[in-house]
Every structure is written in C-alpha cells, then in structure tokens.
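hey
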C-alpha cells in the first residue's frame, strides 16, 4: 500500500511524464512542417510515445499498490521554436527537470521506507541516465554543425539510425 505522500508524489510524476509526452509531440508536429526534417520528426513522435509509456507505467503502479492514480490536466506546451537547436535545448532542459524530479522521488521513497517504490523507481533512474546522455549528445552534435546545411542534413539522417540502434519500435 502506498502512503498518501508517496501517492501524491507519484501522481506529480504522472503529470510530468504527461507534460513530457505533450512537449515532445509539439516538437514533432513543429519539425514535421519544416522542410526536410523527417528524422527529427520521427525522433520526437517516438519520444512522445515513450513518455506516454512512462506515464502509464506510473499509473498502473499507483493503482496496483492500492493508491489512486490521477489523470492530470496539463497546459499547452511550447508549440513553435526559433531553430532546431532551440528544440534540442528545450529537450535537454526538460529531461534534466525530469531527472531531478525522479531523484526527489527516490529520496522520498527511502525517507518513507517504501522499498517497493524505491525498487520500482530504479527503472526510471536508469532511463533518465540514458535520456540525458542522448539529449546531451545530440546537443553537442548540433553545436558542431552550427548553421551548416549539409551537417544538418546528416544530423537528421543520423538521428533515424540512432533510434534503430536503440531498438525502439516505430510509432506506427
Ligand atoms: Fe520520462 Fe524523458 O522522462
């Protein structure tokens, strides 16, 4: 059984994952209407699906542990961007916020001696390490590319391969 404070903190995380899913959906939709960004578009559509999966995993866990998962109301995310670098900067900042929220949750689970929740959260700890690594790496590449159109073309193509390597199933 989850305590009220653990339940509330997990529900806050549900909200954060829902916001992440919406934020990345907005990035995908923006990228889709820019010329030639198929790779980036697919990347964010898939990223959005993954965040929904993170949210669902939390919802199921809260309910399984005798709590009540709440589907959150969320605000409209940022829908237009100054540049591709802007999109990826936002992506990294967002993931850093999620990581810090997961860390706080882990801390709370230990403080409350809720070892089942602590164990459950380890999946998120690992996931965040990977997401931060990917977001940093992509930002570094974009910094190298700068305004070079050829470089951007290759970046967009490479991002498709990156997803294939991570063995993430296509969104459709
Ligand atoms: Fe589920 Fe990328 O945070």
């Amino acid at each position: 059984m989850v305590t009220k404070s653990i339940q509330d903190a997990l529900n806050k995380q549900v909200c954060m994952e829902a916001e992440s899913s919406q934020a990345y959906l907005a990035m995908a939709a923006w990228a889709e209407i820019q010329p030639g960004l198929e790779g980036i578009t697919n990347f964010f559509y898939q990223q959005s699906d993954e965040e929904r999966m993170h949210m669902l995993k939390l919802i199921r866990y809260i309910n399984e542990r005798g709590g009540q998962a709440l589907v959150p109301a969320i605000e409209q995310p940022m829908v237009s961007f100054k540049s591709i670098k802007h999109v990826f900067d936002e992506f990294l900042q967002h993931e850093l916020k999620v990581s810090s929220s997961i860390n706080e949750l882990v801390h709370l689970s230990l403080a409350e001696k809720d070892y089942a929740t602590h164990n459950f959260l380890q999946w998120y700890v690992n996931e965040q390490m990977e997401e931060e690594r990917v977001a940093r790496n992509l930002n570094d590449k974009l910094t190298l590319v700068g305004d070079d159109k050829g470089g951007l073309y290759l970046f967009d193509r490479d991002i498709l391969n990156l997803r294939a390597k991570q063995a993430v199933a296509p969104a459709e």
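Residues 168-172 have pLDDT under 50 and may be disordered. The helical segments are 4-32, 38-64, 84-111, 115-145, 149-165.
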